UniProtKB/TrEMBL annotation:
<dbReference type="InterPro" id="IPR050563">
    <property type="entry name" value="4-hydroxybenzoyl-CoA_TE"/>
</dbReference>
<dbReference type="InterPro" id="IPR006684">
    <property type="entry name" value="YbgC/YbaW"/>
</dbReference>
<dbReference type="InterPro" id="IPR014166">
    <property type="entry name" value="Tol-Pal_acyl-CoA_thioesterase"/>
</dbReference>
<dbReference type="InterPro" id="IPR029069">
    <property type="entry name" value="HotDog_dom_sf"/>
</dbReference>
<protein>
    <submittedName>
        <fullName>Tol-pal system-associated acyl-CoA thioesterase</fullName>
    </submittedName>
</protein>
<comment type="similarity">
    <text>Belongs to the 4-hydroxybenzoyl-CoA thioesterase family.</text>
</comment>
<keyword id="KW-0378">Hydrolase</keyword>
<dbReference type="GO" id="GO:0047617">
    <property type="term" value="F:fatty acyl-CoA hydrolase activity"/>
</dbReference>
<dbReference type="Pfam" id="PF13279">
    <property type="entry name" value="4HBT_2"/>
</dbReference>
Length: 140
């Protein structure tokens, strides 16, 4: 089965870098998150709509390999591929590529669908609402 790849462009800003002009490692997680958010948006899934129903996605597991540095003002491409779609979770493979397509970072992210509850209540894993699950299933 051929998996669809979503791509999102990002430019490295000064605020993303350390004193040497190299992207600080934790900022790759932000780049990956932004691409997943834009992927959902491209599918018509607005997270703020679901948050008003107390449904959200939380990252449960991250495996990330930093291969080469990105630097201030680089143009990057962040990819999103769904590896596995479960009833209550999604496993993504993502890459951060330089504009020349060399791989700078690769990651596998597992996100779980949760009921956020009210203030003071526990956050609990729940099956994805059918509207979200069906859109993700069709997009994969």
């Amino acid at each position: 089965m051929n998996k669809l790849t979503f791509e999102w462009p990002i430019r490295v800003y000064y605020e993303d870098t350390d004193a040497g002009g190299i992207v600080y490692y934790a900022n790759y997680l932000k780049f990956l998150e932004r691409a997943r958010t834009e992927w959902l948006r491209s599918l018509g899934i607005e997270q703020d709509t679901w948050l008003s129903h107390r449904i959200g996605f939380v990252v449960r597991q991250v495996q990330m390999d930093l291969l080469q540095p990105a630097r201030f003002n680089d143009e990057l491409i962040v990819t999103v591929v769904v590896e596995r779609l479960g009833k209550a979770s999604v496993v993504f493979t993502q890459q951060v590529l330089h504009a020349n397509r060399s791989v700078l970072c690769q990651a596998q992210i597992k996100a779980a669908c949760v009921n956020l509850g009210e203030s003071g209540e526990s956050v609990k894993a729940v099956p994805m609402p059918a509207e979200i699950f069906e859109v993700l299933k069709r997009a994969n």
